Amino acid sequence: MDRRKFLIWGHAIICSLGLSLPATAEESGNTFRKGSTMTEIQFILGSERLFATLDDSPAARDFAAMLPLELTLSDYHGTEKIADLPRKLDTTGAPASYKPETGDITLYAPWGNLAIFYKPFQSSRGLVRLGRFDGSISALLKDGDFPVRIEIVE
After folding, report:
1. Which pTM value belongs to this model?
2. What residue range is the signal peptide (predicted)?
3. Which residues, in sequence order, are bridge partners of residue 98?
4. Cα 47 from Cα 11, distance rounded (Å)
């Protein structure tokens, strides 16, 4: 089954059961809003593909507008993989800080770089969540620098 159809089908089941999706960031723990359009992206590392969903926020929409991107990921402090972005992102309305969890895709606004957390970390000023991986991120747990292509799932 096509990934997009599966997500729509899953949403239909939630609605048919009389359940509702979170309506605010406070209810969901991120910037998802009921009725928003979530952007699905993929990280391509050689023959492996990791899927993620971007939040509905100015920074995440601005990041999606840059795609596709070819970046080089590097390890940073044994906690995250980072890469320089070609330009700064729109962080309008972003919280002053964010506490990242494993699988979070973030922007570190002061440096303008992408930061993908493979371990949880403390709340950090200037960290802006862009989205989250949908499954395992084990393909990112490599030593050294390595290339990645990030693109929107069509």
Report:
1. 0.77
2. 1-25
3. 124
4. 30
Our measurement of the distance from residue 66's CA atom to the centroid of its chain's CA atoms, rounded to an integer in Å, reads: 14
pLDDT in tens, 77-91: 999 999 999 999 999
Alpha carbon distance 111, 10 (integer Å): 38
For the segment(s) 23-152, the CATH number from 3.40.50.150, 2.30.130.110, 2.40.100.20, 2.40.30.30 is 2.40.100.20
Q: Are 43 and 136 in contact (CB under 8 A)?
A: no
Distance (Å, whole) CA 148 – CA 72: 6
Q: Phi/psi of residue 104, each to 5°?
A: -80, 140
Chain CA centroid to CA 127, Å: 13
Q: Domain residues of the chain, as ranges?
A: 23-152
